[in-house]
UniProtKB/TrEMBL annotation:
InterPro entries: TPR-like_helical_dom_sf, TPR_rpt. This is Flp pilus assembly protein TadD. PROSITE patterns: PROKAR_LIPOPROTEIN (PS51257). Pfam families: TPR_16 (PF13432), TPR_6 (PF13174). It comes from the Bacteria.
Length: 283
């Protein structure tokens, strides 16, 4: 008579063990899925910050920050996405919020200053940068310091910051272009020309530097195109810039000739140059 009881106890014990094993297995699976979801979330955030459409990225980070407002990485993602989307007015309070959260860093303050500069608030940007410790030596920090010094016409400080920034990056073309433009606004045309040429050597695709180089040369009444990489459309656009600079300096006949050359060079109809030439001839 004891065998059925023993069998029942064994079956009950097996059921308990099976139940425990099932619970452990379920818990393990849930933890595994949590890890996968966390990984997927991080990967998705990276994608949103790099290759996604900027406004789509803003929408994504607005959603995840609403779900987890205390997650500083998500708040950083939102602020960075707003900058990428060229929405600096919204980016400023977003970065300010990041700088006030636990776990904020000096880099967050630099990004906050960047957003402030993009929105035109140079004074607050300077105040924010002044609070960044001197030990935080990054390319972006010194590039922003240089821009702020430029805005204050503190030329020696600007030159020092630009020089430091150039030494902190392997791709200094854009900062050399900024530095050259600073020299251009000061009237130091030969030095501006040198810096723009250096910028183009670093980055042959930097059309802004090419256009600025033409301005620096034209300011010295040098109306010849330099030997730099350019396609036919760029050549026409640079001739147009040179023509307008010549006309502005009173060299009207030279300007007209350059406009005609720009029109002939452009692979399509060059409306801006045609309009400028017509205005001169009619006038």
């Amino acid at each position: 008579m004891r065998h059925p009881i023993l069998l029942a106890v064994c079956i009950a014990g097996a059921s308990v063990v099976a139940g425990c094993a099932e619970k452990d297995a379920n818990a393990t699976v849930e933890r595994a899925f949590e890890d996968v979801n966390a990984l997927d979330g991080n990967d998705l955030s990276d994608v949103m910050l790099t290759v996604a459409d900027p406004n789509e990225a803003v929408s994504y980070f607005q959603r995840v920050t609403a779900e987890k407002p205390d997650n500083i990485d998500h708040q950083r993602g939102l602020a960075a996405s707003l900058v990428r989307a060229k929405r600096p007015t919204e980016a400023v309070p977003a970065w300010k919020r990041v700088t006030e959260m636990p776990g904020t860093s000096s880099n967050d303050h630099v990004e906050y200053a960047d957003a402030l500069i993009r929105s035109g608030d140079w004074a607050t940007a300077e105040t924010v940068l002044d609070k960044v410790p001197p030990t935080h030596e990054t390319f972006k920090r010194y590039r922003l310091e240089a821009l702020v010094a430029d805005s204050n016409k503190e030329w020696k400080k600007a030159d020092s910051f630009y020089q430091t920034a150039v030494g902190l990056t392997t791709t200094p073309g854009s900062v050399m272009n900024n530095w050259g433009y600073s020299k251009l606004t000061r009237g130091d045309y030969p030095e501006a020309e040198r810096l723009f040429s250096d910028a183009i050597r670093q980055d042959g695709e930097l059309f802004t530097a090419k256009n600025n180089l033409i301005l620096a040369r034209a300011a010295q009444r040098d109306y010849t195109l330099p030997v730099i990489p350019m396609d036919q459309t760029e050549r026409a656009q640079l001739l147009h810039t040179m023509a307008l600079s010549a006309i502005k300096q009173g060299d009207v006949q030279t300007g007209k000739a350059l406009l005609r050359e720009a029109i002939d060079t452009h692979p399509q109809h060059f409306e801006a140059a045609v309009r400028s030439l017509r205005a001169l001839e009619d006038g």
